[in-house]
Amino acid sequence: MDINSRESVLGTLEGRIQGRVPWVEIETRDELIAKSLGKNEVDWSDRVRYACETGLDAVGIAHWDRFGCDVISKGEVLGFIPRIKDRTDMSQFRMPDKIDEEKLIENVRRANEAIGSSGLALFVSHLLCLDPVIMD
Fold first, then answer.
1. pTM of structure
2. 28-44 tens-digit pLDDT
3. How far apart are CA 49 and CA 55, in angstroms?
4. Burial of 36 (0-12, 13-18, 19+ CB in 10 A)
5. Rg of the Cα trace of the chain?
6. What are the φ/ψ torsions at residue 33 (nearest 5 degrees)?
7. How far apart are CA 117 and CA 4, in angstroms?
């Protein structure tokens, strides 16, 4: 049976397909993609190219802000400086009171457009816990 990555991911999640577990990263850091492709900035077409070249079955979007970090932007390549290094820094944690839904919708639209007919799945996650704050 010849299926693409998107069909493999969906089939595995639905229990219809057995075998190799699809490889899905929640998010691959833009810095890694830029360095791998020899670029200074990346966009969705670069993220799709990287996924195809490395054998990923999906392109991931992590819909969360780095509540415990200051974000450094270099074009579309992001870097992070942690504000929370231990428990005494928790007062610097900033939980937003509002999420920009239109920005999220536009990001998903651009990702879908870049994925096109590549056969990749789109994996969208939204922060439901605070672990990434501590890890960042």
1. 0.66
2. 888 889 999 999 889 99
3. 10
4. middle
5. 17
6. -65, -45
7. 10
